[in-house]
Design brief:
37% helix; globular; alpha/beta; binds flavin-adenine dinucleotide; disordered C terminus; 3 domains
């Protein structure tokens, strides 16, 4: 029987960040992961600037930079009708003044996760890979039994086994509620791949989207993610919808000579933060286990890293007194609800945007107005404050833009047309030209 202060199940970004910050504080922590490492994970591997603060604290930025497959410097969102909104990479002010970089990374998860896990190991965590947790016996201490029959005990358990892990399932009854599904593949021979990462909207995806992330070696990581209930209503499977997506005008020409490398792989995404569990007695849930996937973008790595750090900080407080004060674990849920408070606005906006008419209204206004277009793209990297989309000023502004658009001779006519000569359109044009120069 192995005994530690903290036992972590799962060595993805959430588990590794928790293990690193705990080990740094001298807390006896064991981490188990079922796979032999390095292991891949079905993912886009797109890091946003949102990940940087925790990666900087873990002192792994240089390694990530070295191992990254690709550095992107901007975003393009393609509408169902072939229009485009573009913006450069930005860094949200509260993500710290340190190291301003005008780009971020696409990195395969076998490399990225290995960097993080090794860092946790070096900090002193007892990391055991190839050890699969099978079941948990709740109690104080908690006991986890592995597939090979071993027992691991700990005062505090951190569940980081991702979207479909058995320990999350043990504690969560409605596992699939509020979930999405994504599929991804690697392709070579794709035309017109630039220095930006691209997103595709389409009615067939509801408020899901398709992505195209370059890998820098002539290959791309591409896929789609969409709401599981929406997909069920369409009576299609996710691979079918993806293959149909490749035939759409925005992609057909570019994918004409593309070759699938390996196979398409699908994986669930646990969304629905509001209903997520953060704590159960002395058990804390982090990353996907806590449904911390941003509803508007499907981004999960940043929140996995952040929740891992919050869990570690909370546990560190528990051990500040001579006798551990487990009541302090209640702070974890409070901290998470504060740190991720905009998830609830994002969920509301997602529900609104799942209506194609609303999505089009928003998209067309964004094409027309520089400020709105940049805020819309800011959703992707979380540099926009989502709650402001619900304030009266934004709502009124949207209707003013829509009216101007209708009255303008150019406004509604074509793909991406804007009012020429206005300050906003000039800004937008300059930005687009800057990005076009890069692509
Ligand atoms: C197709 C797809 C594309 C995505 N693209 C992006 C993207 O571009 N950017 C982004 O930010 N997010 C993306 N996401 C979301 C992102 O992958 C997750 O949010 C992120 O991996 C969550 O990290 P985690 O540590 O919580 O879980 P995971 O990364 O899933 O790690 C869980 C770990 O637990 C281990 N484990 C599972 N069961 C057991 C067990 N029984 N015993 C021991 N160990 C176990 C697994 O081996 C794994 O290592 C994507 C998701 C999908 C499905």
């Amino acid at each position: 029987m192995s005994r530690s202060q903290v036992l972590i199940i799962g060595g993805g970004p959430a588990g590794s960040s928790a293990a690193y910050f705990l080990a740094k504080q001298g807390i006896k922590v064991t981490l188990l992961d079922k796979d032999r490492w390095p292991r891949d994970k079905v993912c886009g591997g797109g890091l946003t600037t949102n990940c940087l603060p925790v990666l900087e604290k873990m002192d792994v930025i240089e390694q990530v930079e070295q191992k990254a497959d690709f550095k992107y410097d901007g975003y393009i969102i393609h509408s169902a009708e072939g229009e485009q909104i573009k913006a450069p990479v930005r860094r949200r002010a509260e993500n710290g003044p340190s190291k301003q970089i005008p780009y971020c990374y696409v990195i395969k998860r076998d490399s990225f996760d290995e960097i993080l896990l090794n860092k946790a190991k070096k900090a002193g965590a007892n990391v055991q890979t190839g050890v699969e947790a099978k079941r948990v016996e709740e109690g104080e201490p908690s006991k986890v039994i592995t597939k090979d029959g071993r027992a691991f005990e700990a005062d505090i358990l951190i569940v980081a086994d991702g979207s479909g892990g058995p320990i999350t399932r043990h504690f969560t009854k409605n596992l699939h509620k509020g979930s999405a599904i994504a599929v991804r593949g690697y392709y070579s021979g794709v035309k017109d791949v630039g220095s930006v990462i691209e997103f595709f909207l389409d009615d067939e995806l509801g408020f899901g989207y398709g992505w195209l992330f370059p890998l820098g070696d002539g290959r791309i990581n591409t896929g789609i993610g969409l709401d599981a209930a929406f997909l069920k209503r369409r009576k299609k499977n996710v691979r079918q919808v993806f293959e149909e997506m490749l035939e759409k005008p925005q992609l057909k020409e570019r994918m004409a000579d593309a070759k699938l490398e390996g196979k398409l792989e699908a994986f669930p995404l646990r969304m629905g933060f509001d209903k997520g569990a953060f704590r159960h007695n002395r058990v804390l849930f982090v990353g996907d286990s806590a449904k911390l996937i941003y509803p508007l973008s499907g981004e999960g790595i940043a929140y996995a890293l952040q929740s891992g750090e919050i869990a570690a900080n909370t546990i560190t407080e528990v051990y500040q007194t001579e006798l551990p004060d487990y009541k302090k674990l209640a702070r974890y849920e409070i901290e998470c609800r504060e740190s991720f408070s905009d998830f609830k606005y994002a969920t509301r906006l997602q529900m609104l945007m799942s209506r194609p008419k609303v999505q089009r209204f928003f998209y067309k206004n964004s094409l027309y107005d520089y400020d709105l277009s940049q805020r819309a793209i800011g959703i992707l990297e979380h540099s926009s404050d989502v709650s402001t989309f619900f304030n009266l000023r934004t709502i009124l502004k949207s209707f003013v833009i829509a009216t101007k658009r209708k009255l303008s001779p150019n406004g509604n006519q074509g793909r991406g047309k804007r009012v020429e000569g206005s300050e906003t359109s000039e800004n937008n044009k300059a930005q687009n030209e800057k990005l076009e120069g890069r692509t």
